[in-house]
Amino acid sequence: MISSLLIALAAGAASAVMFASIISGALVSIFLFYLAPLPLMVACLGWGPMTATIGGIAAATSLGLMFGMGYLAIFAITIALPAWWLGHLALLGRAVEAPASVTGPAEPKSEWYPIGRILLWIAVFASITTMAALLTLGTDSETILGTLKRSFGRIMAGRTEGDSDTIANTIAMIAPSAASVVAIITLTLNLWLAGRITSTSGRLKRPWPDLHTLALPPMTLVVLCVAIALIFLGGIVGIFAQIVSATLLMAYAFTGFATLHALTTGLGSRTIVLSMVYAMTLVLGWPILVAACLGLADAFFGFRQRLGERRPPHRWRDKASLQHLTTSNTNKEI
């Protein structure tokens, strides 16, 4: 109990320091700010949600006492709450009945919360935090876009050639979508890193999921279509719909990469192909749109499911299944 409390306080202190480092204005502080949920996620996955809860409350309280209630609220909504809830979902599981085996009693199995639904929750948090950040600038679209335009105009003053007002206006228009994309990427990266750290240390209580099977719930497509339609209403509703659309498209880009991994299984040049795709995505950026289209196409047509049906069964059987098949054949011969 004492060790868990100390770990909770250490995780909370690390997360609070990383969050507050943005005040310094240093370039490295941006990197630390985006990694602020990581200590709490590690504490949640390795020592349980209660540890992350204690650490989050301690961190938020400390920030509130030092910098004001505004920092407390921002930290609680954008850092502590997502870290605790995503870690809780990752550890959520239930026992399921295993089929009877001819070699003996069946081993108990656990069914874990699907990673596709966790990704959807990440998209929800990314959208909410981006909307909350915009609402601090104003409560209507004109005020929000005007504030963003003036801020980007001051940054680019004297640094760009041509019409800086037009450039600032364009950046202000795409800033909400870009912020939501950055939010979902950083939250996903933090959860993946936390899982890797706890898995390496041996404290992860669930088996590492098969990321090749990552798939969003079917209703996500309906929500995406509605959000895209609401963009044309304009105003604050249009901005919020733009944020939701960009976040969900980024989530489908993740499923597109999972589809690419599944489709290239068994290819001799698989490593080269995947390395080139990821390198182009990091350098150019636009291949992420192709990945989103692939993810949407897989959601419509079920490429991975059809691939699993066409491939020989032995490729998809694990070692336990092969041993069970061998034992059954031997018993039949006897």
Radius of gyration: 23 Å
Main sheet properties: 2 strands, antiparallel
Strand content: under 5%
The H-and-E topology, N to C, reads as HHHHHEEHHHHHHHHHH
Instruction: Indicate the mean pLDDT.
Output: 84
Number of helices: 15
Task: Specify the structural class.
Answer: mainly alpha
How many domains?
2
Strand order of the largest sheet: 1-2
What does the overall shape look like? globular
Counting DSSP E segments of at least 2 residues, the number of strands comes to 2
The rounded distance between the terminal residues' Cα atoms is 55 Å
What key attributes describe this structure?
single chain, 334 residues, mainly alpha, 2 domains, 15 helices, disordered C terminus
Write structural notes for this entry.
The chain is mainly α and 334 residues long. The chain has 2 domains: 1-92; 113-301, no CATH class. The protein is built from 15 helices and 2 strands. Helix 8 (164-201) packs across helix 10. The longest helix has 38 residues, at 164-201. Residues 313-334 have low confidence and may be disordered.
Present the secondary structure layout:
Blueprint: H1 2-20, H2 27-34, H3 37-47, H4 49-67, H5 69-90, E1 93-96, E2 109-112, H6 115-135, H7 141-156, H8 164-201, H9 219-231, H10 235-263, H11 270-284, H12 287-301, H13 303-310, H14 313-316, H15 319-333
Antiparallel strand pairs: 1-2
Helix pairs in contact: 1-3, 1-4, 3-4, 3-5, 3-8, 4-5, 5-6, 6-8, 6-10, 7-8, 8-10, 9-10, 10-12
